[in-house]
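Backbone geometry:
***
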Amino acid sequence: MEHPENDPRYNGLTVNPGVAAPPSVNPYMQRRKRKPLPSAAEMVEGILKGDITMLSRAVTLVESLASDHNAIAQEVIEKCLPHSGHSRRIGITGVPGAGKSTSIDSFGLHVLKNGGKLAVLAIDPSSERTRGSILGDKTRMERLALHPSAFIRPSPSAGSLGGVARKTRETIVLCEAAGYNNIFVETVGVGQSETAVHSMVDFFLLIQLAGTGDELQGIKRGIMEMADGIVINKADGDNLERARLAQAQFRSALRLFPKAASGWDPEVLTYSGYFELGIPEIWDMIDRYFAFVDANGYFERRRAEQSRYWMYETINEQLRSASTTIRRSNATLPRANTLCWPTARHRSLPHDRCSTSISTIDRRSDHRGHQRPGLIRDTTDMGHDAHGSPPHRRPTTGVSAPECRRQ
């Protein structure tokens, strides 16, 4: 750019040349090469040795949505499964602001005094708008995070309902294989219906606050009747009397609930997580519970029920994954829109159209000579009939074979 001020006719006026703008990125910066993904055998070997770094990478691999990670993750879980099941799984839940993370910091230090290892799986809510998560529960566990025998893993809920993450069960298996004999699962701040954590833990601890409801709130079904123990936090200072009043109200409400399948009568205690008051009493209650369920055999029955429930949830997840793949497929999108149009116009029930859609897409997959992953098929009557000809394959839903042929 030429400046007229630099002309000799203008005395005393000069414009110095400018300095080139520095680059936005440091030109001397050298990008670190990402470490290659270890094999499944290397991950399992590191997990069994108690390597926290390898355990963290395995959990990240299990939580990944990338399709090329699924096979390795499944292989790692299958090899770690025989080394799992030897821990106390404790679910800790409560309303937002009840002091779950602060209480876990005190609970964990008390547990580790007796030896052993502790893994904390903290679930943080994900944004419905940005899909991001702060993962800040670990900041409230300052002392526990520095303990050499503690492993704290924050995970986003990623849209999963029930207060837990999508792969929390698999993460529990990996932590148990790494030698952690105490597992804490901290849920997101929950309401009255988020009880999914109950299907993956041995003891369900509900943290409540004083003054958050009346007597009617205490007898409502849902998360209250699932709890094996109820503790009222922040029972200190001026709030001590209110906490004791809430304790009496919850005890009265629990008498109206039906007997639990374990035969255990849930207890209601008060404590202060910040001042560490009443922590030993809570852990004594948990010890009594485990001694009780070990004696009557409920512990093993409950673990077996949880394994079956895990299998059914895996089937549902595979079906949802298959439906997502079908919905995004360009080949089946026009057909899916045609089938969904009567439902959108309120002319058909979603259940009927869904059955028709699955049967149609499943039949098209058969014509192409392959089966879509995740779709569970009924192959019990695949033999020949009395006339020697193979019968029509029964569809997986309530739509009959003639209806499928007409479509």
User: Anything to note?
Assistant: Confidence is low (pLDDT under 50) at residues 370-407. Strands lie at 88-94, 118-124, 150-156, 182-186, 203-208, 229-232, 267-270. The longest strand covers residues 88-94.
